[in-house]
Write a structure and sequence with these properties.
Keywords: DNA-binding, Transcription, Transcription regulation. It is a single chain. The protein is built from twelve helices and nine strands. The chain is α+β, with helices and mostly antiparallel strands. The strands form two sheets. A five-stranded antiparallel β-sheet has the order 1-7-2-5-8. The protein has a four-stranded antiparallel β-sheet with strand order 6-3-4-9, with no helix packed on it. The termini are far apart.
Length: about 300
């Protein structure tokens, strides 16, 4: 390898290590007030190891009862919450939270996003036997030790440990203790609104909205689009498309007022392939062109 190539490689590794602290977190449950709901940000995947305590995971359109040690995978694009979890009770375990970038190494992340571990209609909960608990507690302990170390490439080691956890889960049979939540229409509508809210604010002109149509939301929530539309209409009195359009218009106005992005950049960030499509959409819903709205 030529000297310059070696320098470039080492520089890239150093930058990766420097950014690791913002892309990865690990903690014991209830340690320093870290709870199951910690890091419910839209850019963090999370793996929770629950070794003691009972709760229910409300994930997409399902409730999953957790009444024994479990490994739980939660996706930032799938709304979820914990029911029955009380922080001051005797809950024990670990969790780690990480971004797309932390695990990204070519095709692996894409396959991870499409795996049953993180899909809305997949199986995010894996109930554990004693040997599996011991093995996973050991891995999380190693992750915490490395996280506190001064080793310059510690995040490479941590990434390897996280992948061990992921592959251990892939080998397991998932939990099947699912039951339908009461008032399904209300639950689905609430999940849709929560997922819609997570799409905003738009952070970058180079990263367009991931979910743009009712069908995109239905796929993430693992329901048929007609079922989603009916539930949202019943509960809110508005169509799914109306909610999406109103949110896009509100974000467009905010970007026009509070950023110096040009109209093409705003259009791209909001999921429009061409600025002309965005101009027509904006004028249809506001009566103004984007440039006129910016000038007011």
């Amino acid at each position: 390898m030529q000297q310059q190539d070696l320098i470039n490689k080492n520089t890239k590794q150093f930058k990766s290590v420097q950014s690791g602290s913002t892309q990865f977190r690990v903690s014991k449950l209830n340690e320093n007030k870290c709870q199951l709901s910690s890091y419910n940000r839209r850019d963090f995947y999370k793996i929770s190891l629950i070794t003691k305590g009972e709760s229910r995971l409300l994930y997409a359109n399902r409730d999953i009862e957790i009444n024994k040690p479990a490994l739980v995978f939660t996706n930032p694009l799938v709304p979820y919450s914990w029911d029955g979890y009380i922080p001051n009770e005797e809950y024990e375990g670990y969790f780690c939270a990480f971004t797309d970038e932390f695990l990204h190494d070519g095709s692996r992340l894409e396959s991870l996003q499409e795996s049953s571990l993180y899909k809305a209609d997949g199986n995010p909960v894996y109930l554990l036997d004693d040997n599996q608990v011991k093995y996973l507690v050991d891995i999380f302990s190693r992750i915490r030790t490395e996280s506190d170390s001064e080793y310059v490439y510690k995040y490479e080691l941590i990434r390897n440990h996280v992948n061990l956890i992921i592959h251990e889960a892939i080998k397991m049979q998932p939990a099947v203790a699912y039951f339908d939540p009461p008032n399904a229409a209300s639950r689905i509508a609430k999940l849709f609104l929560s997922l819609l809210e997570r799409q905003f604010p738009v952070d970058s002109a180079q990263s367009p909205l991931k979910l743009k149509k009712a069908g995109d939301y239905a796929e993430k929530l693992a329901v048929h689009v007609n079922h989603l539309n009916a539930a949202v209409q019943e509960v809110t009195g508005k169509s799914t498309t109306t909610h999406i359009n109103e949110s896009i218009i509100a974000e467009a106005k905010s970007l026009l007022i509070h950023t110096d992005w040009n109209v093409a950049e705003i259009a791209f960030s909001l999921g429009f392939e061409y600025a002309s499509y965005f101009n027509n959409f904006f004028k249809k819903h506001t009566g103004l062109t984007p440039m006129k709205a910016r000038a007011i």
